[in-house]
Amino acid sequence: MKTLFDKIWDKHVVKSITDEVDILFIDQQFIHEVTSPQAFNGLKSRGVSVFRPDRTMATADHNVPTINQHLPIKDQESAHQVKELTKNCEEFGVELFGIGHKNQGIVHVIGPDLGKTQPGMTIVCGDSHTSTHGAFGTIAFGIGTSQVEQVLASQCLVLNRPKTMKVEVNGKLNKGVTPKDVTLYIISQLGTEGGTGYFVEYCGEVFSEMSMEGRMTVCNMSIEMGARGGLVGIDDTTINYVTSRVAISPEKIAEWKALNTDKGAKYDKEVIFDAANIYPMVTVGTAPDTGIKISGKIADAQFITDKAKKYMGFNGTDAINEQKVDYVFIGSCTNGRIEDLRAVASIAKGRKKADHVNVWVVPGSMKVREDAIKEGLDKIFIDAGFEFREPGCSACLAMNEDKIPAGAICVSTSNRNFEGRQGTGARTLLASPITAAASAIEGVVTDPTKFLN
């Protein structure tokens, strides 16, 4: 009896070094402009070529501007990194979707959308949120720059085998609860170290009923509870998503489904949650495990520290739904997909943002942007007073020009609320797309159920 994780891992072992250390074959590597230059320089210094360029795909996303992408990048370091990525991909024969390309976008958005992410794979990228791809029933995880170089050179990695953890959520979700709320709730219960040393499989009714985009949101944030990665079983939802993008044989589909966890397989750790206990969530501290329901008070966050309260300017007795909002950021590899933008538009349609709030809607890829325009979502955003921008990681990590000013409160659909993550001194509240949209309209942190029929 084996778990999904164990089956995929075992199929990819090239050689076992010890009982706990294996050389693992990597099916797909995604690269971007920030963590790849040093890796390519390492190859050049040793006179080594990229072993399997057909299994590597590159894009520019982390520090690209989201306004006027047709103009030269102003920040010199960012411009240099993008230029180096272009040069390295040309030199080593790696497929690149650079600025202006119809397939450009955030690496964890375009991989699935282009059909590059498929069940049963091992996938790596020099980015911690590579766990996103686990939604397809893959072993996907972030790696360091030296490991990026190793995969470029050999298509393999020497790895310690993680333990397995089952997170099960059953029951019916409350009104206004989205996949983002589900993952913020799980992290608020387990803490930022609750999954350390484990690869998590998400099981139960709540995940089996989720869309692929919802599953990607959940797996994306697995890393925020310390897990090596997260994955969801392979079902018709998975298959339909993949086959709508690329042609897959019936034999391959049967092979994928056979990878699912066997009945009676044992995990190293198991936790179970009741969906009835989950409500629309928002974080109130400087770590992703400080989520509380929007009707709650700051003190309800069991993992919040005094240091975090001081940075955020909160008292334990403060009600978060009275907190004024300065900025709203909708985007990132967590919530920058077309389904997320549709959800935001459903709240924003026929309404206006509060006068004092700046709202940025940043699609996760050129394709998402084009689809949004085809569906008229851009007009809804603009009519509501939202800025509809071009693709990129944007204010998720502020490596570009999209920075939240010091002291400002930003309701963000991204994945991290660390001190300075969105700009020096910025204060971040993580939330779902519909909570972000509702807060933009009301000007304070707002429960989205107010706007749901």
Share in β-strands: 15-25%
CATH-defined fold name of the largest domain: Aconitase, domain 3
**Radius of gyration from the alpha-carbon trace, in angstroms:** 21 Å
Provide the CATH top-level class of the largest domain.
Alpha Beta
Task: Report the biggest beta sheet as strand number plus sense, adding barrel if it closes.
Answer: 5 strands, parallel
Q: Order of strands in the sheet with the most strands? A: 5-4-3-6-7
pLDDT average, as an integer? 97
Number of strands: 19
The CATH H-level superfamily of the largest domain is Aconitase, domain 3
Structural class: alpha/beta
The best one-word shape is globular
| Helix content class | 25-40%
In CATH terms, what is the architecture of the largest domain?
Answer: 2-Layer Sandwich
Count up the helices.
Answer: 16
Produce the secondary structure layout.
Layout: H1 4-11, E1 13-16, E2 21-25, E3 28-31, H2 37-46, E4 56-59, H3 76-92, E5 95-97, H4 107-113, E6 122-125, E7 139-142, H5 145-154, E8 156-160, E9 163-170, H6 179-190, E10 198-203, H7 205-208, H8 212-220, E11 229-232, H9 236-243, H10 250-257, E12 269-274, E13 281-283, E14 291-293, H11 306-312, E15 327-330, H12 332-335, H13 338-348, E16 358-361, H14 366-374, H15 377-383, E17 387-388, E18 409-412, E19 427-430, H16 433-442
Parallel strand pairs: 3-4, 3-6, 4-5, 6-7, 9-10, 9-12, 10-11, 15-16, 15-18, 16-17, 18-19
Antiparallel strand pairs: 1-2, 2-8, 13-14
Description:
- This protein is of the alpha/beta class and 453 residues long.
- It folds into three domains: 4-160, Aconitase, domain 3 (2-Layer Sandwich); 163-277, 3-Layer(aba) Sandwich (Aconitase, Domain 2), CATH 3.40.1060.10; 283-451, Aconitase, domain 3.
- Helices cover 31% and strands 18% of the residues.
- It is built from 16 helices and 19 strands.
- The protein has helices at 4-11, 37-46, 76-92, 107-113, 145-154, 179-190, 205-208, 212-220, 236-243, 250-257, 306-312, 332-335, 338-348, 366-374, 377-383, 433-442, and strands spanning 13-16, 21-25, 28-31, 56-59, 95-97, 122-125, 139-142, 156-160, 163-170, 198-203, 229-232, 269-274, 281-283, 291-293, 327-330, 358-361, 387-388, 409-412, 427-430.
- The strands form five sheets. The chain has a five-stranded parallel β-sheet. The chain has a five-stranded parallel β-sheet with strand order 17-16-15-18-19, covered by helices on one side. Strands 11-10-9-12 form a four-stranded parallel β-sheet.
- Strand 1 (13-16) and strand 2 (21-25) form a beta hairpin.
- Helix 2 crosses helix 5 and helix 13 runs parallel beside helix 16.
- The longest helix has 17 residues, at 76-92.
- It is globular.
